[in-house]
From TrEMBL:
InterPro entries listed in its UniProt record: HAT_RTT109-like, Histone_AcTrfase_Rtt109/CBP, Rtt109
GO cellular component: nucleus
Record-given protein name: histone acetyltransferase
Subcellular location field: Nucleus
Superkingdom of the organism of origin: Eukaryota
Annotated catalysed reactions: L-lysyl-[histone] + acetyl-CoA = N(6)-acetyl-L-lysyl-[histone] + CoA + H(+)
Record's keyword terms, sorted: Acetylation, DNA damage, Nucleus, Transcription, Transcription regulation, Transferase
Natural source organism: Wallemia ichthyophaga
UniProt-listed GO biological process terms: DNA damage response; regulation of DNA-templated transcription
EC number(s) per entry: 2.3.1.48
Length: 390
């Protein structure tokens, strides 16, 4: 029997989270569903994979303190996990349990599906992603764009993937290293540059289409453009053309563009080059990474504790329509949300662990004289910035 995500979360928190505290842990996993939006919409060579949506939330002192939403896509040869949203209210203790939440999802996915796992993150600073008005409560520390990239890097430092990459669009390698102080475990760039097999594939089958991701919006523009980045024109299909003909046209439009050109031009787009720092993080976990010894029973938990996608969206919307403007309001919103879950879901104790006890040594702070080690830097071909950015 495979441990549920809730069981893995509780165990890892009790074993690994520094300090002494008590948390309520909520984990919701939807059943597999098929989205209308294809993960690779511009190629017919990759079937549209099923998706699970995951919501993990933590509460302390009677109020929600942090939460993360992830989307899990199961392909034939790998699992892709996209971090959709992360947020905090400011009412919890430090350190954040977020790295343990992500680690638990990775562990659970590898055991459940016996596949390599890729973690994708797009990082952009915003006042609130999950907890409305939490930036106004006086306790929440809203991170600047550069602080958020550092927070993500520090959070992901606690994981042990096979390889990991980070990329700050619009910044040179030297500038990025100065901003984020990465170490030797990180590669500056993207996975496609350092993987010959990936680098040899076409753009349409390389870049997944995630929601609220500038890569997806850039793919849309390129796929619907009759002119390639190098000025070559492509005849558009007739208005009455079939769906297959339109997909073929868009695939041809994308596949004329190299992956190197795509990443270089992405840094010139307004949402990545408007004076604010955004970041991409990629982590690859092979099937052999980590001490996973549990028996493989694929999708065993689907029938046991997964909820319908419709119910997941209803519970998710109840949370994101709450108000965390004050501590009192946050307590009321938390109580109301947890009660709704208990009302809407049978066997709600499988989704809510109300008293997870943590009693571990405090985290040792890094000394001021610790010198950061420079990151691995990929050698890339330098190009002049184009006269006009796409």
């Amino acid at each position: 029997m495979i441990d549920s995500l809730q069981d893995i979360l509780n165990r890892k928190l009790e074993e690994r989270l520094p300090g002494k505290r008590s948390l309520t842990v909520i984990s919701l996993v939807s059943n597999f569903t098929q989205l209308k939006q294809h993960l690779f919409p511009f190629t017919s060579s990759i079937p549209n994979p099923p998706i699970k949506k995951i919501l993990i939330a933590f509460a302390e002192y009677d109020t929600l303190s942090s939460a993360i939403e992830l989307h899990l896509f199961k392909l034939n040869d790998r699992v892709l996990i996209y971090v959709s949203k992360v947020d905090s209210t400011g009412f919890g203790l430090t350190p954040s349990p977020m790295s343990i939440a992500i680690e638990s999802v990775i562990h659970w996915a590898k055991v459940a599906f016996n596949l390599q796992v890729w973690l994708h993150i797009f990082s952009r600073a915003q006042n609130a992603y999950i907890f409305p008005n939490s930036e106004k409560n006086g306790k929440k520390r809203v991170l600047s764009d550069m602080q958020l990239q550092r927070w993500w890097k520090q959070t992901l430092d606690n994981l042990t993937p096979f390889k990991r990459w980070l990329f700050l669009p619009g910044f040179s390698q030297e500038e990025a290293i100065g901003i984020i102080k990465v170490d030797n475990d990180w590669i500056y760039g993207n996975p496609h540059q350092s993987n010959q097999e990936l680098n040899s594939r076409n753009l349409s089958s390389l870049i997944p289409y995630f929601e609220d991701d500038p890569k997806s919006r850039f793919l849309d523009e390129l796929a619907n453009s009759a002119e390639a980045l190098d000025g070559r024109s492509l005849k558009k299909p007739r208005r009455e053309s079939s769906k297959e003909e339109n997909v073929s046209y868009k695939q041809n439009a994308l596949d004329r563009i190299s992956i190197e050109e795509f990443w270089e031009r992405l840094g010139y787009r307004q949402e990545c080059a408007s004076g604010r720092v955004t970041g991409f993080f990629f982590l690859h976990f092979s099937r052999e990474d980590g001490p996973i010894k549990e028996a493989i029973e694929v999708n065993k938990t689907d029938q046991d504790i997964d909820i319908s996608i419709e119910l997941f969206h209803r519970i998710h919307d109840l949370l994101t329509n709450s108000d965390f403007h004050t501590f009192e309001g946050a307590v009321s919103a938390t109580s109301s949300w947890l009660n709704k879950i208990r009302t809407l879901i049978d066997n709600s104790q499988a989704y809510i662990a109300p008293n997870v006890k943590v009693d571990n040594p405090e985290k040792v702070k890094a000394t001021a004289d610790t010198e950061p080690v420079k990151a691995q830097v990929l050698t890339v071909r330098k190009k002049k910035r184009p006269a006009s950015a796409v």
